[in-house]
Specification:
Subcellular location: Cell membrane
Strand content: 15-25%
Keywords: Amino-acid transport, ATP-binding, Cell membrane, Membrane, Nucleotide-binding, Transport
CATH superfamily: P-loop containing nucleotide triphosphate hydrolases
Mean pLDDT: 96
Radius of gyration: 18 Å
Largest sheet: 6 strands, mixed
CATH topology: Rossmann fold
Oligomer: single chain
CATH class: Alpha Beta
GO molecular function, one term: ATP binding
Structural class: alpha/beta
CATH architecture: 3-Layer(aba) Sandwich
Number of domains: 1
Number of strands: 10
Bound molecules: adenosine-5'-diphosphate, magnesium ion
Protein name: Peptide ABC transporter ATP-binding protein
Low-confidence stretches: none
Strand order of the largest sheet: 6-7-8-3-9-10
Membrane topology: Peripheral membrane protein
């Protein structure tokens, strides 16, 4: 059974449809990347999954269980399924790296502080920051802050991690340390949906690439298909343009 199944998902911000009839199936441990022109609905799709925007129609299922986006109580459960990391890491500036990672599990979920702290230290070690646990965000580089943000997302023990352009705000020399962290998570078997402009990375890490345009999935396939032999003119045109520069 696929780990994540989206069926006929549609969403909007009140007027025109922004996602139309989106379908996708993701196996456990699979890395799926979503590419497409600006405004094609990539961020909106991740926002719907994590419960920031209610779907207008369609269904999402994780491990065969439908995800309920219908009420605030249900949305709290959604946060146990999905965690999201954004381009802007948005750490709490007045908290250390360690506290940024422990605050949601302890305050929101009410888990025991000692246990959560031990997990948070392990997560910060995983993202290569065991020496910076007591640092405040303004003492960390962008790449380090983004790695704290990834640790913070993982502290919620999501089934599926959503990454929305997590390297787009970084200075070029800091991109690779964040990509290395994502590679580590992939090797651990984390199921991930990734929106990224780092096409070489997308090609390397993804088992499947989804090309979206105008709120629809236009083409889905392995990286070799999407980048070397796209089946649709729309995808071929996009790939030609992004790979040219
Ligand atoms: N908060 C919002 N309110 C209204 N329209 C939005 C909002 N966010 C995004 N949109 C619109 O939804 C469409 C898809 O946007 P988005 O999901 O951000 O695309 P992408 O991430 O692929 O660039 C765009 O037309 C965008 O203008
Ligand atoms: Mg976006």
């Amino acid at each position: 059974m696929p780990h994540l199944v989206l069926d006929s998902l549609s969403a909007d911000y009140g007027r025109d449809p922004v996602l139309s009839d989106v379908g996708l199936s993701v196996e456990r441990g699979e890395i799926v990347s979503i590419i497409g022109p600006s405004g094609s609905g990539k961020s909106t799709l991740l926002r719907v999954l994590v419960g920031l925007l209610r779907p207008r129609a369609g269904t999402v299922a994780v491990a065969g269980t439908p995800v309920d986006y219908g009420s605030d109580a249900a949305l709290r459960k959604v946060r146990e399924r999905f965690a999201i990391v954004f381009q802007q890491y948005n750490l709490f500036q007045n908290m250390t790296a360690l506290r940024n990672v422990t605050v949601a599990p302890t305050v929101v979920k009410g888990r025991p502080a000692g246990e959560v702290e031990a997990e948070a230290r392990a997560l910060l070690a995983k993202v290569g920051l065991s020496h910076r646990v007591e640092a405040y965000p303004d003492e960390l580089s962008g790449g380090q802050q983004q790695r704290v943000a990834i640790a913070r997302a993982l502290a919620l023990k999501p089934d599926i991690l959503l990454l929305d352009e997590v390297t787009s705000a970084l200075d070029p020399e800091l991109v690779s340390e964040v990509l290395d962290t994502i590679r580590l998570l992939a090797a651990d078997g984390m199921t991930m949906l990734i929106v990224s402009h780092e096409m070489a990375f997308v090609r390397e890490i993804s088992s499947k690439v989804v090309f979206m345009a105008d709120g629809r999935v236009v083409e889905t396939g392995p990286p070799a298909q999407i980048f070397d032999a796209p089946q649709t003119e729309r995808c071929a045109d996009f790939v030609r343009r992004i790979l040219r520069h």
